[in-house]
């Protein structure tokens, strides 16, 4: 744009300009096709390991372990039967239920804490509200190992090791900064007149939250909840350190597949697929807001 | 940074300031300025919760890092030693883990950032099935990290029945044992596969937020696509590249799952988070584990300082 040519008034120049613009459009259409093919190839390359995981989970153990791989082997649910303990008797349900409890309860707590906090940071902002925002952000940058040891010792002396309640409280703290940032950006989009009207009608904080804010930002709440759910469901370091047999979560259960156990590839793939399924569903449901959550609300 | 930025807000929220003396003209001004404490109450639960569960444990880590505290020698617990820090920087194994942490973070972030930029530029064009490709690109990021690491370890890198050697077998190539022969590369490849979608998403959002009128003006003025890229896209994308790179660094620095699953820290792949876990869990040396944790935090602070600056620039633009 800074290289813009001075407007040439002559007919010749105008026609040349037009034709070059047409050429560019054509060129860019051709460019789009090339870009499209390249994008498809790269997309397939990136998704292929996932596709292969699902495919292998549906193969028999013998067909899963051939070299070269047998892509077109008959499909079976044996891998899933094995994962659900058909022959070993080890049921994955307790860890799956633990994961569900830790993720869902922590997500509910996060939302309940984040909405009022975001209200105090955007609708009727306290002084220095940006400092508070950046305090929340900075805690997200504190690595989990920074507090792991005291959390472990604390749990050991208070008998909270292997306790799912302890885990969901920690997951709440882990996800709260993301939720506060996302919620604030949703609340900031609500016109202030709505709050004035609610205040004029005599609505207090609770009433305003329930009748004005929550209905408007419910899509935002849903997206935030899905993202917090994903992070809690994925978490391994805290779960692996602080839980074992009783309160172990699904990722902890998955670590039992770390060492090879004979022909078990179909079972591993079935386990990986089954445990990832809630995240895949939540991720696709929150697709449009995923960036916002991952970038802690910095990108819309 | 957590501790550096903490004090101002804590005092800001606990000190009742009743000096709202600005002229209060409109209703909205008056309403917005009413009652300092009433306004802070909704914030307090979240703030107190966060401080208790993040700041206090970190302070405890800091204190314990100066203690001689090994679980198997409960009689020798003592405060006031720099032994743990000396160990972190002199022990060859630990030095290698500090080194690998840096190499891993830099490699994974730079490669996935470059790939993410290329892919997001492709995805920003219009072509058949664009939203399908976008969804395919996101999918790796939606696999539970432990599951993704298991998938790569067993289904892809396995020397006997892995996909990679299966394809090489077809082509008549060699059959290397990937994880044993190239342990660090295997971990890096797995993490790049996992993080490229993240970079792509952030950079794509950046590309789509380029001001349309300027792009149009450039097209009218006859700028070619390279000029648009160099003069409009890149300056605009700088901040998104920074954001992706810095956020990615913070996340990749904390990598634990992949190392735990793929190599269990063997073959020189123990990064700092894994080493902290091992020192705490297997060696039960609490003092040393804390000192290692503090070193990770120092690295994070270095990255976070830049990240906070980037985020606050984006944030200031948004709230203007």
How would you briefly describe this protein structure?
Chain A has 300 residues and is mainly α. Chain A has helices at 11-57, 61-64, 78-83, 93-122, 129-141, 145-158, 164-187, 192-200, 205-234, 237-242, 250-254, 265-285, 287-294.
What string gives the helices and strands of chain B in order?
HHHHEEHHHHHHHHHHHH
Percent helix of chain A: over 70%
Task: Figure out the total of helices of chain B.
Answer: 16
Q: What is the H level of CATH, i.e. the homologous superfamily of the largest domain in chain A?
A: MetI-like
Tell me the Rg of chain B in angstroms.
25 Å
The run of helices and strands of chain A is: HHHHHHHHHHHHH
Q: Describe the sheet with the most strands of chain A.
A: none
Gross geometry of chain A: globular
Tally the structural domains of chain B. Answer: 2
Give the helix level of chain B as a range of percent.
over 70%
């Amino acid at each position: 744009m800074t290289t813009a040519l001075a407007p040439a008034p002559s007919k010749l120049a105008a026609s040349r300009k037009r034709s070059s613009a047409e050429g560019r459009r054509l060129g860019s259409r051709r460019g789009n096709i090339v870009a499209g093919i390249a994008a498809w190839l790269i997309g397939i390359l990136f998704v292929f390991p996932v596709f292969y995981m699902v495919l292998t989970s549906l193969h028999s153990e013998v067909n899963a372990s051939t070299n070269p791989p047998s892509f077109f082997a008959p499909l079976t649910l044996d891998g899933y039967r094995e994962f659900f303990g058909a022959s070993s008797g080890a049921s994955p349900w307790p860890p799956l239920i633990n994961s569900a409890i830790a993720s869902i309860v922590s997500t509910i707590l996060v939302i309940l804490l984040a909405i009022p906090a975001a209200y105090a940071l955007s609708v009727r902002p306290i002084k220095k509200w940006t400092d508070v925002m950046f305090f929340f952000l900075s805690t997200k940058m504190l690595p989990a190992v920074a507090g792991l040891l005291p959390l472990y010792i604390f749990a050991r002396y208070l008998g909270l090791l292997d306790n799912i309640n302890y885990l969901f409280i920690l997951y709440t703290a882990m996800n709260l900064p993301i939720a506060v940032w996302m919620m604030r950006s949703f609340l900031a989009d609500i016109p202030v007149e709505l709050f004035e009207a609610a205040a004029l009608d005599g609505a207090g904080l609770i009433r305003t939250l329930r009748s004005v804010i929550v209905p408007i930002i419910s899509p935002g709440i849903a997206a935030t909840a899905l993202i917090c759910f994903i992070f809690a469901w994925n978490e391994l370091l805290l779960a692996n350190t602080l839980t074992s047999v009783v309160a172990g979560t699904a990722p902890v259960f998955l670590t039992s597949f770390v060492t090879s156990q004979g022909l078990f590839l179909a079972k591993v793939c079935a386990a990986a697929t089954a445990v990832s399924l809630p995240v895949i569903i939540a991720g696709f449901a929150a697709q449009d807001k995923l960036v916002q959550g991952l970038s802690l609300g910095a990108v819309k | 940074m957590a501790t550096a930025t903490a004090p101002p807000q804590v005092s800001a929220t606990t000190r009742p300031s009743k000096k709202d003396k600005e002229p209060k003209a409109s209703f909205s001004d008056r309403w917005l300025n009413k009652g300092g404490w009433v306004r802070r109450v909704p914030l307090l639960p979240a703030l107190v919760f966060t401080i208790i569960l993040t700041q206090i444990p970190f302070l405890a880590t800091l204190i314990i890092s100066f203690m001689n505290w090994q679980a198997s020698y409960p009689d020798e617990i003592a405060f006031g030693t720099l032994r743990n820090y000396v160990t972190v920087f002199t022990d060859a194994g630990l030095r290698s883990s500090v080194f690998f942490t840096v190499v891993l973070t830099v490699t994974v972030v730079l490669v996935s950032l470059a790939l993410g930029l290329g892919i997001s530029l492709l995805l920003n064009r219009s072509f058949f099935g664009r939203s399908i490709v976008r969804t395919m690109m996101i999918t790796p990021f939606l696999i539970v990290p432990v599951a993704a690491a298991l998938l790569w370890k067993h289904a892809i890198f396995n020397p006997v029945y892995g996909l990679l050697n299966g394809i090489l077998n077809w082509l008549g190539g060699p059959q290397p044992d990937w994880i044993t022969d190239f342990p660090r590369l295997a971990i890096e490849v797995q993490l790049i596969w996992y993080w490229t979608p993240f970079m792509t998403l952030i950079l794509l959002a950046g590309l789509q937020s380029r001001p349309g009128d300027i792009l149009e003006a450039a097209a009218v003025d006859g700028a070619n696509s390279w000029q648009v890229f160099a003069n409009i896209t890149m300056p605009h994308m700088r901040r998104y590249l920074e954001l992706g790179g810095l956020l990615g660094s913070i996340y990749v620095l904390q990598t634990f799952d992949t190392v735990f699953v793929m190599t269990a820290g063997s073959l020189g792949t123990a990064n700092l988070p894994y080493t902290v876990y091992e020192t705490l869990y297997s060696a039960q040396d609490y003092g040393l584990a804390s000192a290692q944790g503090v070193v990770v935090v120092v690295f994070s602070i270095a990255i976070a300082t830049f990240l906070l600056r980037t985020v606050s620039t984006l944030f200031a633009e948004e709230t203007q």
